[in-house]
């Protein structure tokens, strides 16, 4: 919903946030079996189209408290059912990941600076596991240039190394907090996205620490504002 607003309204996208909030709060929620507005206030949300069809009723005194308690119980029960359903879906898809001491693993690091984070994580290493810490963390043997980094990581930050390379790739541009500065290096192609009332120019760009396969589509106006030099050699 927010992405659609950003594309349609461009730089003034933040002005559409109240409408997005209204749409979300007045929309039917499967987990609640009603809208969040109705769950909170006990009636449907008024709109210009349904001003007199909100199903209001007058409730006073003890009846008001009893009605509120019933609403809370019903919402809690619906949430428990929804959470149980989501957990069952997650359990089916979940695969427990475990490693052993002396295994080699890759470490996932993320870009924290740059126009977009959707370029995704990259992996560095591999590094040797020297100790297991509890059920979900491992201590790694890091090289000397990463001496200042805490060397215990959660399993979600690790990826199994199936074959240890003879030489480890250099760790270029990596900061002490295991982040790196990301920026686009090349425009691969351009396109136009047509919305209801405007055309948005888009560029497919390759990022410094990623391959062409991992290229992402970005708005041209944002790229020109942040990286004007990117267009110097692009015809």
From TrEMBL:
Residues 103-161 form the Tf2-1-like SH3-like domain. InterPro entries: Chromo-like_dom_sf, RNaseH_sf, SH3_Tf2-1. GO terms for molecular function: nucleic acid binding. This is Tf2-1-like SH3-like domain-containing protein.
């Amino acid at each position: 919903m927010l992405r659609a607003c950003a594309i349609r309204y461009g730089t003034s996208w933040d002005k559409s946030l109240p409408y997005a909030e209204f749409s979300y709060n007045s929309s039917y929620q499967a987990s609640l079996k009603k809208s969040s507005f109705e769950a909170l206030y006990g009636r449907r949300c008024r709109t210009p189209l349904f001003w007199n069809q909100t199903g209001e009723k007058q409730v006073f005194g003890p009846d008001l408290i009893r009605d509120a308690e019933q609403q809370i119980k019903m919402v809690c029960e619906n949430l428990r059912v929804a959470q149980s359903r989501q957990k069952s879906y997650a359990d089916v898809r979940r695969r427990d990941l475990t490693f052993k001491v002396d295994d080699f693993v890759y470490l996932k690091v993320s870009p924290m600076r740059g126009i977009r984070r959707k370029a995704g994580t990259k992996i560095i290493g591999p590094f040797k596991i020297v100790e297991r810490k509890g059920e979900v963390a491992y201590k790694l043997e890091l090289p000397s240039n990463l001496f200042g980094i805490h060397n215990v990581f959660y399993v979600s930050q690790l990826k199994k190394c199936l074959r240890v390379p003879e030489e480890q790739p250099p760790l270029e541009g990596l900061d002490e907090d295991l982040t790196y500065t990301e920026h686009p290096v090349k425009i691969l192609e351009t396109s136009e996205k047509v919305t209801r009332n405007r055309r948005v120019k888009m560029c497919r760009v390759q990022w410094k620490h990623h391959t062409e396969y991992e290229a992402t589509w970005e708005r041209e106006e944002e790229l020109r504002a942040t990286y004007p030099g990117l267009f110097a050699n692009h015809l």
